[in-house]
Amino acid sequence: MATTKEFLAEILDRLSGLDGVTHRPMMGEYILYYNGKIVGGIYDNRLLVKPVKAAISCLPDAPYEFPYDGAKPMLRVTKTNDAALLQKLLCAMYDELPAPKPKKKKQ
């Protein structure tokens, strides 16, 4: 089951208090970025984030789930109605996330 546009809109609305939150469609799902860094994604109407130390601290009881077959496990954010928590989570994670890879130059 692919993520619905309504669920995406709800998550983006709750993150609207942060500048720099963007998304990109990817095979019926969505990758979430914060200031250019990948923080996680929305898969089958589930918000999943990378399991960096800050995310684990913010979500100590979060279950690990796979976004799709063959992927690494991620933390599932179960309290998606809590805008303050979602914004705090992304801010806390930011410094631990890898910098974006440079784009390849077209020849």
From TrEMBL:
Domain TfoX N-terminal: residue ranges: 14-71
Pfam families in the cross-refs: TfoX_N (PF04993)
Superkingdom of this protein's organism: Bacteria
InterPro entries recorded: TfoX_N (IPR007076)
Protein name as annotated: TfoX/Sxy family protein
Originating species: Agathobaculum butyriciproducens
Lineage of origin: Bacteria, Bacillati, Bacillota, Clostridia, Eubacteriales
